[in-house]
Each structure stands twice: as C-alpha cells, then as structure tokens.
Amino acid sequence: MSGGMYVVALCVVIFLYVVDIAMLGRAVLSWFPTEEPTRIGAFLYVVTEPFIMPIRNLCGRFGWFQGVPLDMPFLITSLLMMLVSSFLHTMFLG
Predict the structure, then answer these.
(1) Domain ranges across the chain
(2) Residue 42 phi/psi, 5° resolution?
(3) Fewer CB within 10 Å: N-end or C-end of the chain?
(4) Among residues of the chain, what percentage have pLDDT more than 90?
(5) Residue 1 pLDDT more than 70?
C-alpha cells in the first residue's frame, strides 16, 4: 500500500469520526428543546445535515419508517458512517 493511500484513508476516517461526534452532539441537544435555536445547535445541523439528507430523502421517497418515533435516517446515516470508517480502518490502516 502506498503512503498516499494511507494518508487519504486516515483523513477520511478522522473526518467521519468528527462528523459522528457532531451527530452525537446534535442528538444530545435534541433532548433539550429550546424556543430559539442555539448557535451550537445551528452549527451541528449545518455540519451533519448534508450527510443525513440523502438518506432522509430516500426514506421519504419510498415511504419507509413512516410513523416510527425515532429519526431512522439519522440512525441509518450514523450506522453507514461507522461501517465505512470500520472498512477503511480494516483495509488501509489496520
């Protein structure tokens, strides 16, 4: 394996880890509803929503998880990010 591939895989894994932490922060903040959006909440929304929106659109288009009280696209996105990170870690960093 080339050094360049190692660096790219490491950067992607670190990036996915940071986005996963942001998603965790967004989930925790959702437990404390406020009348006005906070700066931290708005920042976490802007950072995480580009990853969640494609899954949310896919689920909405096919009518999946209608009436489920959990935000399933959020959970699916988190799971997919963990799988990609684990794959990259195993293939290129492990």
Answers:
(1) 3-93
(2) -65, -40
(3) C
(4) 82
(5) no
